[in-house]
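Quick one:
INPUT:
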């Protein structure tokens, strides 16, 4: 039985798609091990997936005051210390992943765990890159991970992707040390997130739908958009009697949640309460990791500590959220009109895509959000039938896709056709030797 390692670091929205892929691979008869930070062990084991910890909880890192200060005030001042901490997280994760990957036949990684490319090289097995947002360079739109503008023009759009290359150079510092100390490899002289050390392209699987983010025309053939990797909830979550009573007391509420970034609770709660009062409707809110304070909320707002989005969103008429890839997918799969209040990373990109698809109002950055803006968006979500029609059309397309099935077919093709780098060199050497012997014979 072939064995595959999936290696990821991030919040729950970053881990769930890989758990979905792991589950699908296991159902196809593969041995699977999922590597992530320690807080996801119980989740993985609830799906009977073998789990390997890559280090301490990423949640504790995001809760640090330096992270909040960087996000809300000055990334320039706080960024260097965060990058140093990030390097330590990478170092710890890579050492754990090295132990975890012994004996596997393939490694599936993402940008945060690109050290897996080095592990694959050392173990002479294929590495497959994955992403939850578009990252290969294109002239069609700027890099989604760093919000700059909707469109800079073809030349500057393409140029914006050098930011990811520069960031990768920083992460390569611990990687090169690990290559020498742990794996017995030389430092990387070339290659990046989407290439092997020798510069050859890595197959990259994009775990979202072309119905939401069309594939750029200038992407390489190795960049493949598979469709979403949806993890079906097994928790058996159902509304509590208190939540059922709230639902039956009036019209379907709007879901409001600001995601996994654990800061701004006081400000976010004030905006929430004022906006719902101005709007005059009803809302159900999620705390995330601390973005909303559930104490002293009016009767028109029902707080939920934790609930799977694919179940909770069935009870709401529309959704307001931070624009994480997973939360965006959950809302669109159920055809819910959506208003995105992005904070960082790829969230502005997904907010823009929702707006361009006609499924909701134009996104507003959380730092610029006011009670008045949120109230206007809530009223718009509740009354605009075009949003509902467009979201239903997108949902129909998404439900017809099977992203994990397409991903597995690509993974199997890569594994079947893989030739270790050393073997490639030997093959070339043999070909040259044969050519030389033929010349001598003549």
């Amino acid at each position: 039985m072939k064995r595959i390692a999936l290696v990821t670091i991030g919040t729950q929205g970053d881990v769930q798609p890989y758990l979905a892929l792991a589950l699908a691979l296991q159902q196809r008869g593969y041995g699977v091990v999922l590597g992530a930070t320690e807080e996801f062990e119980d989740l993985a084991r609830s799906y009977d997936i073998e789990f390997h910890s890559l280090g301490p909880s990423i949640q504790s890192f995001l809760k640090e005051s330096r992270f909040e200060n960087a996000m809300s005030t000055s990334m320039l001042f706080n960024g260097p210390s965060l990058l140093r901490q990030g390097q330590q997280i990478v170092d710890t994760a890579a050492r754990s992943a090295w132990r975890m990957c012994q004996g596997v036949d393939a490694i599936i990684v993402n940008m945060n765990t690109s050290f897996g490319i080095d592990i694959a090289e050392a173990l002479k097995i294929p590495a497959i890159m994955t992403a939850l947002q578009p990252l290969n360079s294109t002239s069609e739109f700027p890099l989604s991970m760093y919000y700059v503008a909707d469109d800079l023009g073809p030349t500057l759009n393409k140029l914006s992707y050098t930011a990811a290359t520069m960031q990768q150079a920083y992460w390569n510092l611990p990687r090169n040390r690990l290559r020498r100390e742990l794996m017995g490899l030389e430092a990387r002289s070339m290659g990046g997130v989407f290439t092997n050390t020798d510069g050859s392209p890595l197959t990259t699987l994009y775990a979202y739908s072309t119905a939401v983010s069309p594939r750029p025309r200038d992407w390489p053939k190795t960049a493949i958009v598979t469709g979403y990797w949806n993890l079906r909830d097994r928790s058996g979550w159902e509304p509590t009697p208190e939540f059922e009573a709230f639902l039956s007391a009036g019209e379907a509420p709007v879901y409001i949640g600001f995601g996994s970034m654990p800061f701004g609770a006081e400000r976010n709660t004030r905006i929430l309460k004022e906006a719902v009062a101005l709007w005059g409707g009803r809302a159900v809110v999620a705390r995330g990791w601390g973005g909303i304070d559930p104490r002293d909320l009016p009767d028109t707002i029902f707080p939920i500590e934790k609930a799977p989005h694919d179940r909770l969103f069935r009870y709401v008429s529309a959704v307001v959220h931070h624009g994480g890839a997973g939360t965006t997918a959950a809302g669109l799969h159920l055809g819910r009109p959506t208003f995105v209040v992005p904070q960082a990373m790829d969230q502005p990109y997904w907010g823009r895509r929702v707006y361009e698809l006609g499924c909701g109002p134009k996104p507003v950055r959380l730092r610029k959000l006011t009670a008045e803006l949120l109230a206007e968006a809530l009223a718009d979500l509740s009354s605009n039938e075009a949003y509902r029609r467009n979201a239903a059309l997108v949902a129909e397309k998404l439900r017809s896709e099977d992203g994990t099935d397409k991903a597995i077919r690509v993974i199997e093709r890569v594994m079947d056709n893989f030739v270790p780098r050393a073997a490639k060199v030997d093959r070339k050497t043999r070909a040259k030797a044969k050519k030389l012997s033929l010349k001598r014979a003549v």
